[in-house]
Amino acid sequence: MQIADVQDIIDHEMLSHDEIVNRIHEVAKQIDKDYAGKTPIVICVLKGAVATYYELTQAMTIPMKMDFMSLSSYGSGFESTGKITVRQDLSYDVAGEDVLIVEDIVDSGNTLHWLVGELNRRGAKSVEIFSLLEKPARHTAKVELKYKGFVIPDEFVLGFGLDYDEEYRNLDSIAVLKPEVYKGANS
Ligand code: 5GP
Ligand code: MG
Ligand code: MG
User: Fold this and answer.
1) What atom of ligand 1 comes closest to residue 45's alpha carbon?
2) 105, 48 contact by CB (below 8 A)
3) Whose CA is nearest to atom 8 of ligand 1?
4) Number of domains, the chain
5) Cellular component per GO (predicted)?
6) 37 within domain boundaries
């Protein structure tokens, strides 16, 4: 809760910094085991996954390559439009490569469903996902998460990379936005 005035817009803290980081480190150990002998391309889905990506990759001990992709499905609203656009593409050709996608949250599943399909079309040898958060109540497009941090209720959360109207990504924990804040907004 290090950001000034964050208390004005949040209802409560959902996950502390230590809880989040400890869980990411557990996942990193599992990934080290599962990818032993391989050199995966680990993709950060910008911008929401940056904090998770940093903690994960610092904790990994196997060889890996970093790449970044920016997709848009939400804009600054609260509901996924279902139409995905690539704002910034990968720098690597993933054909024949083991690819691990790192995401902040799966809500409708539209974004990841599209991305997994796209990486398979490009000829990736394997495609797996680590999402820090999952809102299972909302899944409409099927995605299989090999790795996940926490399953959370259907509430709008911010912090640890996740934004509220592009701000608060640098909050070091995850918090629930006050319902009156988004009920009052256009979505
Ligand atoms: P999906 O395509 O699965 O519906 O949504 C994917 C993206 O929507 C996420 O990567 C994230 O950027 C955004 N999103 C979904 N739920 C939340 C939420 O509770 N808080 C924030 N800040 N972003 C969310
Ligand atoms: Mg995201
Ligand atoms: Mg957003």
Assistant:
1) 10
2) yes
3) 74
4) 1
5) cytosol
6) yes
Q: Is the CB of 80 under 6 A from ligand 1?
A: yes
How far apart are the C-alpha atoms of 51 and 56, rounded to whole Å?
9
In a domain, 11, yes or no: no
- Interface ipTM > 0.90: yes
186 found inside a domain: no
User: How many angstroms separate the alpha carbon of residue 136 from the centre of ligand 3?
Assistant: 18
- Return per-residue pLDDT of the chain as tens, 187 residues: 778 888 889 999 999 999 999 999 999 999 999 999 999 999 999 999 999 999 999 999 999 999 999 998 755 455 555 678 999 999 999 999 999 999 999 998 989 999 999 999 999 999 999 999 999 877 777 799 999 999 999 999 999 999 999 999 999 999 999 988 876 554 4
Task: Please list the active-site residues.
Answer: 107
Torsions phi, psi of 37, nearest 5?
Answer: 85, -5
Q: Is the backbone of residue 105 left (phi > 0), alpha (psi -120 to 50) or beta?
A: beta
